[in-house]
Amino acid sequence: MERSLILLKPDCVQRRLIGKIIARFEEKAINIVAMKMIQVTPDLSKQHYAEHVEKPFYGGLEEFITGAPVVAMVLEGLEVIRVVRDMLGATNGLKAAAGTIRGDFSSSRQMNLVHASDSPESATREINLYFKESELCPYEPTLTPWLKAGDE
Ligand code: CMP
Question: What percent of the chain has a predicted confidence (pLDDT) above 70?
Fold first, then answer.
C-alpha cells in the first residue's frame, strides 16, 4: 500500500473543478485518508518546490501556488503514486493525453490543476510538509472485496 500527496492547485479551486477532480479519484476507488483547504505561504512553497527554487520559472510558480487556496489530500492505494500520475497526464496540459485530468481540463504548463508526488521519497517528504500524523484517517473500505481479488 502506498500514499501520495495531492494538491488541487489554485487554478482548480478558482475554476470550481475541485468536485470533478475528487470524483475521478473516488471513481477509481482510491482511498482519501486526509484532506484540507489551506493557503500556501511563500515559505511552504519554497520547501515544497525545493528542487525548482533555482529555476527561472520558480518566481511565477510561487506567485501562482500562493495566489489562492489549495486543497491538500493524502491518497492511499496500491501503486497509488504511479496510478495518480497516470490519471493526471503530462505536466503540460497542452501535451497531456485526452482522457487524463490535465488532458481534459488544462491547457497550461504552469496551471496544470493538480500536483501529485512523483516517488515514495517525495510522497513521505510532501505528506509531512502538509499534514501531521494525527490528521491522517486511514480506514478499511467496506467495498474492498468488490474492488480486487484477495491475492492482488
Ligand atoms: P507540479 O507537478 O506541481 O511540479 C512542479 C510544477 O512547476 C509543475 O507541476 C508545473 O506547475 C510547474 N512547471 C514545471 N515546469 C515548468 C516550466 N517550464 N515553466 C513553468 N512552470 C513549470
Answer: 100
Q: Which residues pair with 37 in a beta bridge?
A: 71
- Residue 129 sits in a domain whose CATH number is 3.30.70.141
Residue 9, classed as helix, strand or coil, is coil
Residue 152 has pLDDT above 90, yes or no: no
The answer to whether 15 touches 117, Cβ cutoff 8 Å, is no
Whole-model pTM: value is 0.95
Ligand 1 centroid – CA 60 distance (Å): 10
How far is residue 125's CA from residue 139's CA, in Å, rounded to a whole number? Answer: 22
Nearest CA to ligand 1 atom 8: 110
In a domain, 57, yes or no: no
In a domain, 150, yes or no: no
